[in-house]
Amino acid sequence: MRFKSILGVALIPMVAYAADPIVREVPVASASASPIDDFTALDTEFEAALVEYTKELKAADKAQRRELRGNSPIKRYWPRFEAMSKAGEGRATLWLVDHIKENRDVRSKERGAVLTPLFQSIIDNHADAEWFTSAVKSLNANKKYVGIEESVAMLEKAAKTAKSDNAKAASLFFAATIVGDSDPDRAKKWMDEIGEKYSNTVYGTAARASKATPEDSEVGKVAPTFVGETIDGFQFSIEDYRGKVVALDFYGFW
Q: What sign does the CA torsion over 230, 232, 236, 240 have?
């Protein structure tokens, strides 16, 4: 059993999308680990360093590139984010998860051992964070390193500990997606639960869409109630636009 998810919905006309933020050129400070660093400031500093590093890498010859890669921003900043993570900053823990593939000191076969405690820490300590859904998505993306059964178990736990409906629904949705072929009954149970209990979320819409038939989209039918998200992260319900002319652009990757 395979499930398709709606990955994005854009409203036309006149929906303003926020442009990507411009990275400020700030001096790169010492890379000494300090758990008292502010995460946002450190992340901004890292992004600025990454911009400069990319410029230098493009202009360097082969020998210079080898030397530059040995002192990449990831290598220099990883200890600082790691120290911040150990001090209890969950966003730093998620940063480690999202940048592990860029860390050449962590080999592919070692990623599972590094990622597993990071995800466990997020699930145990940061279930009320507004970025918790991002962590759930990252867990699904890294399931081959963490392990299928371990990932499903973590997602089940996340569904219980998460505070927001969207995070709960996301946890069950990805768990159902992972076990869809091997355990279709369990996957269907979770998808039904998402559609019934979390219909006010993007994943609730996706769960209901997985059971849609061609007749549901015939010309002239009233559009079903659903929740979507624009490309800049704004979540909305089609109910907000009843009685208005709305053009929808659905896109996805399968």
A: negative
Domain residues for the domain of 53 are 8-15+27-251
Single pTM value for the model: 0.70
Residue 153 lies in a domain: yes
Query: How far is residue 230's CA from residue 223's CA, in Å, rounded to a whole number?
Result: 18
- CATH for 90: 1.25.40
Residues ≥6 apart with Cβ < 8 Å to 49: 28, 73, 76, 77
Answer whether residue 1 is part of any domain.
no
Q: Look at residues 251, 223, 249 and name the one whose alpha carbon lies nearest to residue 237.
A: 223
Rg, Å, the chain Cα set:
21
Number of domains in the chain: 1
Q: Residue 95 contacts by C-beta under 8 Å, 6 or more apart in sequence?
A: 39, 43, 81, 85
> Does any domain span residue 216?
yes
Q: How confident is the model at residue 24 (pLDDT cuts 50, 70, 90)?
A: very low
Nearest to 194 by CA among 182, 178, 176, 212: 176
Asked whether the predicted pLDDT for residue 246 surpasses 50, the reply is yes
Rounded Cα distance between 163 and 129, Å, is 8
User: Which tens digit of pLDDT belongs to each residue from 61-111?
Assistant: 888 888 888 889 999 999 999 999 999 999 999 999 999 999 999 999 999
Which amino acid type is present at position 21?
Answer: P
Determine, yes or no, domain membership for 22: no
